[in-house]
Specification:
Length: 187
């Protein structure tokens, strides 16, 4: 992959009712050249809208991929990868770092009625996750808008060491710092 290819990594951090979203533009050469911040509701259903807003406000035509740190951010606020792909016109890759049997059991333990039905339907509509070896570590990848092989190449190209792609690593640090700066309270 060419060193100038850019990806937007999106991660979050929360302490209370509002989750801080951080978007970080990183080149494949590991140079960070853009930040954008937003929020979504902890336990809500608005994370996809929050990420779309980040991409629109960032207004960077040079960003080729959107990487998201997980499929359910901010306490089960499930990302709709298909809608995100359509709205941003970019391939979307969700990367998780722990093995699991999925979220259905957890969703059923935490929600009921319409709240459960909405999350369960959105979660079931997402692509399956696949195990991927990166630098002797294992991550789990879902992708929309690009073939599995290209998603694998993107994750590996943006991961210089360890198993966390650089756009997601830096976005996670930025989200935590912004959340701490906000005091972890609602605005």
């Amino acid at each position: 992959m060419k060193s100038g290819v850019r990806a937007l990594g999106v991660a979050e951090s929360y302490r209370r009712d509002t989750s801080t979203l951080a978007g970080v533009v990183t080149r494949a050469s590991r140079v960070t050249d853009g930040f954008v911040f937003g929020d979504c509701t902890v336990g809500g259903t608005d994370v996809t809208d929050g990420i779309i807003d980040l991409v629109e406000r960032l207004d960077r035509e040079d960003v080729r991929y959107v990487l998201v740190g997980g499929i359910a951010l901010a306490w089960y606020n499930v990302v709709d990868m298909h809608r995100l792909h359509e709205a941003t016109d970019r391939p979307v890759i969700a990367v998780t770092f722990e093995e699991s049997d999925g979220l259905l059991e957890s969703l059923e333990a935490e929600f009921s009625g319409d709240a459960l039905d909405r999350r369960r339907e959105r979660y079931r509509g997402q692509p399956p996750r696949r195990e991927l070896s990166v630098n002797d570590q294992t991550v789990f990848v879902r992708q929309v808008g690009l073939p599995e092989g290209e998603a694998r190449d993107v994750v590996r190209a943006f991961t210089p060491e360890g198993g966390r792609p650089e756009p997601l690593r830096v976005a996670r640090l930025a989200a935590r710092a912004a959340d701490e700066w906000r005091g972890g309270t609602d605005r």
